[in-house]
Write a structure and sequence with these properties.
Layout (H helix, E strand, L loop, with lengths): L3 E5 L3 H16 L13 E6 L4 H15 L9 E6 H5 L4 H4 L5 E3 L7 H6 L6 E3 L20 E5 L1 E2 L10 H5 L3 E2 L2 H14 L3 E5 L7 E2 L2 E2 H9 L6 E5 L8 H9 L6 E3 L7 H7 L5 H14 L4 E8 L6 H14 L3 E6 L7 H5 L6 H24 L5 E9 L10 E4 L5 E4 L8 E9 L3 E6 L3
Parallel strand pairs: 1-2, 2-3, 3-4, 4-5, 6-9, 9-12, 13-14, 14-15, 18-20
Antiparallel strand pairs: 7-8, 10-11, 16-17, 16-19, 17-18, 19-20
Helix pairs in contact: 8-9, 12-14
Bound molecules: iron/sulfur cluster.
Length: 436
C-alpha cells in the first residue's frame, strides 16, 4: 500500500473530485498524507479552463519530480480536466509524469497504481455513465460539504473547454444524493452545497432540480442548502418556486451572465438574451426577498466592440450584482471559438476593459455592503480569521447570502451566531457578536 498526496487546482468540482479520489484510494488501502514529502504517490488534480493554470501545473509537477531524489519509487500523476485536455501532448511536455488520467477514470486508479510501466500511463476515456455512485467522498474538515449531483455539460458555450474534458451531462440518482446528505447532516454538517456544471439542469427519472431541492430541504439537521452553478436558461417555474418555498435554501445565487450584449451572447452560444436574463433576475429577486446575485463576466471576447462592452457595463450597473468573477478572454484549444472565431482584440484593450469592469463591480459591491452596516446578520462560524482586530482574535463565517463576515469575539466553529455589522469593504463585512 502506498502513501498518497493529492493537490487540487481549479473549481469546486475539482475539490469534490479530489475528495472522491481520496475515498477510492483509501478504500483500496492507500493512506492519504498531507505533504508531498511524505508521499509515494503524488496526484495533481488539475483545471483546463485557463492556459496559465496548465503552465503552473506543469511547473509544479516538474518541481515535485525532484522528490525522486528521496523517494525513488515516487509515482507522479496528473488527473482531471488538464489531463483530459492535453492527453496527447503531456507525455512530451512533462516526461517526468508517470500517469495521466481524465475525470471519468478514477475508479481504475488502484488498479493502475498496482501496475508498473516505463511509459506514461494514459487513461482518458470519457464515460457517459460514470457518476461514481456509492462512493462517499473523504471530506476535508469544514462546515460546508459539497455534494456532486451531476457531472459534465451539454451546453457547449463556444469559449468553454468543460464539455470536452468532462464529457456529457449525467445526473446522480436522487436516492443517492439524499443518502449522502442525510449522512452529512448526521455527521454534523449544517450546510451542504449541491454541485454541478449546470446544476439546475439536474434530472434523474422523475426528479428535476426543483423537486430535488424540496426533498433535500426536508432532511433533519440541515440548516443551509446552496447550489452552484445554475445556468440562466435552465430556471423553471418549479425551481423558482422551490427557491421561494424551501426555508433552508440560501438566498444567494451565482448566475453567470458573461456579457451584456446580445450579439456577444449569441457568439458565445449562451442560450439566453439580455432581456431574458434581466427578466429572470427580476423574477428571482421577487420570489426570494433579500436575494443576492453574483455572476461571471468575460471582457474582450471575439470581436467585442467598445459599444458591446459598454452594454455589459450598463447591464452590470443596472442589475447591481453583489460580486462578480471577471475574466479576460483567452481562447482554449479545441473549443468552437478557438476554431471558428477570431481572437482579434489586442491584449491591451482586453486588459483595459477588464480593469474598467472590475472598478465598476468593486464600487457596486462596496455600496451594497455599506448598506448592510447597522444590521444584524446570521453567521455560520467557519473558524479563526487571519485578520487581527487589535489584540483580539477574530473569527469568520458566512451569511445565508454567502457574504464573508469577520467578527471580534470567539465563537465555536459550526455554530450559528448573530453578528451586528459596523464596517464593510467590497468583499468583507465586519462586526461584533450581537446580544440575543
Ligand atoms: S454552461 Fe457553458 S460555460 Fe458552463 S460549463 Fe457548460 S459549456 Fe462551460
Amino acid at each position: 500500500m502506498r502513501r498518497v498526496y493529492i493537490e487540487t487546482y481549479g473549481c469546486q468540482m475539482n475539490v469534490a473530485d479530489s475528495e472522491l479520489v481520496a475515498s477510492i484510494l483509501r478504500r483500496a488501502g492507500h493512506p492519504i498524507v498531507t505533504t508531498p514529502e511524505a508521499a509515494e504517490v503524488i496526484l495533481l488534480n488539475t483545471c483546463a479552463v485557463r492556459e496559465h493554470a496548465e503552465e503552473r501545473v506543469i511547473g509544479r509537477a516538474s518541481q515535485l519530480s525532484g522528490l525522486r531524489a528521496h523517494t525513488p519509487n515516487l509515482t507522479l500523476g496528473i488527473l482531471g480536466c488538464m489531463a483530459q485536455h492535453l492527453a496527447e501532448s503531456l507525455p512530451q511536455r512533462a516526461p517526468f509524469v508517470d500517469l495521466v488520467m481524465g475525470p471519468d477514470s478514477y475508479r481504475r486508479l488502484p488498479q493502475i497504481l498496482a501496475e508498473t510501466s516505463e511509459e506514461t500511463l494514459l487513461d482518458v476515456r470519457l464515460d457517459r455513465e460514470e457518476d461514481y455512485l456509492g462512493i462517499d467522498p473523504v471530506r476535508r474538515q469544514g462546515v460546508n460539504a459539497w455534494v456532486t449531483i451531476m457531472r459534465g455539460c451539454d451546453k457547449f458555450c463556444t469559449f468553454c473547454i468543460v464539455p470536452f474534458v468532462r464529457g456529457r451531462e449525467r445526473s446522480v440518482p436522487a436516492d443517492e444524493i439524499l443518502r449522502q446528505v442525510r449522512l452529512l447532516a448526521a455527521e454534523g454538517y449544517q450546510e451542504v452545497t449541491l454541485l454541478g456544471q449546470t446544476v439546475n439542469s439536474y434530472r434523474h427519472g422523475e426528479f428535476e432540480f426543483g423537486r430535488l431541492l424540496r426533498a433535500v430541504g426536508q432532511i433533519e439537521g440541515l440548516k443551509r442548502l446552496r447550489f452552484t452553478s445554475p445556468h440562466p436558461a435552465d430556471f423553471t417555474p418549479e425551481v423558482i418556486a422551490a427557491l421561494a418555498e424551501v426555508p433552508v435554501v440560501c438566498p444567494g445565487l451565482h448566475l453567470p451572465l458573461q456579457s451584456g450584449s446580445d450579439r456577444q451572447l449569441e457568439l458565445m452560444r449562451r442560450g439566453y438574451t439580455v432581456a431574458q436574463y434581466r427578466a429572470l433576475a427580476a423574477q428571482l429577486r421577487e420570489a426570494v426577498p433579500g436575494l443576492t446575485l453574483t455572476t461571471d463576466l468575460i471582457a474582450g471576447f471575439c470581436g467585442e466592440t467598445e459599444e458591446e462592452f459598454q452594454q455589459t457595463l450598463d447591464l452590470v450597473a443596472e442589475l447591481r450584482f453583489d460580486a462578480a468573477f471577471t475574466f479576460k478572454y483567452s481562447p482554449r484549444e479545441g473549443t468552437h471559438a478557438h476554431k471558428k472565431l477570431a481572437d482579434d482584440l489586442p491584449e491591451a484593450v482586453k486588459t483595459e476593459r477588464l480593469e474598467r469592469l472590475i472598478a465598476l463591480q468593486e464600487r457596486i459591491s462596496w455600496e451594497i455592503n455599506q448598506g448592510l452596516i447597522g444590521t444584524t446578520v446570521e453567521v455560520l462560524v467557519e473558524g479563526p480569521s487571519k485578520r487581527q482586530n487589535g489584540n483580539t482574535p477574530s473569527f469568520y463565517g458566512r451569511t445565508p447570502q454567502g457574504k464573508t463576515v469577520v467578527f471580534a469575539q470567539e465563537a465555536p466553529t459550526n455554530t450559528l451566531v448573530p453578528v451586528h455589522l459596523h464596517r464593510a469593504t467590497s468583499h468583507t463585512l465586519f462586526g461584533e457578536l450581537a446580544r440575543v
